[in-house]
Every structure is written in structure tokens, then in C-alpha cells.
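Reply to dn_fold:

You asked what the input looked like. This is it:
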Amino acid sequence: MFATRFAPSPTGRLHLGHAFSALTAWSAAKAANGRFILRIEDTDFTRCRPEHEAGIYEDLAWLGLDWETPVRRQSDHRADYDAALETLRGQGVLYRCFRTRKELMALAGAAPHGDDPADVHAFRGGPASPDEEAERLARSEAFAWRLSIRAAETRLGGFDRLTWTEEGLEPGLRRAAPQTLGDMVVGRKDIGAGYVVASVVDDAAQGMSHIVRGVDLAPVTSVQRVLQALLDLPTPIYRHHRLILGPDGRRLAKRDKAATLADMRERGVTAQAVRAELGFPSP
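and this is what came back:
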């Protein structure tokens, strides 16, 4: 059966970009007489807020969406994700990265795009030496768990067999190329497993047949495909859709204070007007 999901993080209110993604996934599920899942990705408890989660439910209901209940909240399933992280550690494909945010920002050219510097793509610094790691652990320094692409490639015997089907923009068969992203963060000392691990665990647990999401997330699919292989999880079909851009031509983002659905609602904008603007009929 067709099953897909919308999985926002409750770190702020939803904007038009979120609305487009949610409506795209919901409409695909309705057209296929399938399942639509709402998942709350709140693994980062340092940034997620209950009031933002409540706002997600309010905004989606205002748009006319419905979803299966109960809603899966990742904070309720941390043991599942940490078990997956421990499996990866046992396979020898993770290492501790002790670089500070300042150091990572310098590597990323001060991260002008606003991304969290601890998640900088194309990181290839590699692990610390055993002596340095022991010293840093003795000092209880913070660290991130990074997936070693080289170690994963060795364990899997290469990435050539790791493929998935893309049904969205530029459809066709895709082959994993995680080398372009470098050693991605998959967990942290303070919060445990991160979203990239939690998402593949949840997609398998909830029986997702299709992942419908923005094209900005397409590059991470290679890493998720590697994790699916390492954790012996099924691979869904992916549909990456276009992004909703602001007046400056950049994708809408919470960090840029994009106008929220709540703001629009307060100004008297109707849900029907929002749906029409995004190319969806009234429910």
C-alpha cells in the first residue's frame, strides 16, 4: 500500500514551504488511496518546543489535512534510534568528532547559508588519534558521531549496489554517492542519535513506501541509503519536489523569519487562498 509522511521539526511555526510539502505528500496519498502519516521529528530537544508542535497540528488542520493517529513523536522512541546508533558503532563505521563549532564554521567558510556548522557537508577531517581521543574523553569534551564513508564502503563492499527509485524531479534509478557529502553527523554526545538515523528507523517502522519531500533534501538520500543497507532496512521510493522560494529567490526557511501560516491567518488570509497559491484545490 502507498504510504508517505510529512515530518516537520517543532523548532518554529510552519511557512508556505512546509505547506507545499505537506499538501504534496497528503495529495499523493489521497490519490493513491493510501496512508498519510504525520511524524514529529523532535530529536533535538535543545531546540524543539511544545508550543511549536501544537502549532503544527493547528496549521495542518487549518489547511484541511487529516492524518493517522496517534502521531509518532521521535522523543518517545529514543531507545530505538540509540540502538541503531549502537549497531553502527559496533560495525566500526562511526567515529567521534571533537571539532568545535568555531572550527567547523571556519571549515565551512563561516557557513553563510546559515546551516548548523556541526552538520557541515563534505567534512573529511577524519577521527582524532587514539591518544587525542582518550585525552578529550577524559576531559568530558562534547563530540558528534560521524559516519565514516570510507569504513561504510569497506563494510558494504562498495556502494555500486545501493540504488533507489526517484519519481519526482528527474525521475529514474539513482545510485548512492555519499562521498560527495563527506562524513555526516549522525548523532551527538548530548542528544544521542540524530534525525538522519531516526528518519530511516521510523520510515521502516511505519511502513513508508514513498518519501515525498523537497529537492533540497535529495543529496542526503545517498547517506540514508547507506544507513538502510548497514541497518538492514527497506528502501522506499523517493519523490523530491520543487521548493517554494521567497522574493529573493532563496528557499523559505525558519531561520530567515519567513512569513508563517499563523501570521497569514491572523492577516485574514484563508486556507483556500493558500492552497490556490500553492496549486492545490480546496478540500
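Residues 109-121 have pLDDT under 50 and may be disordered.
Hope that clears it up.
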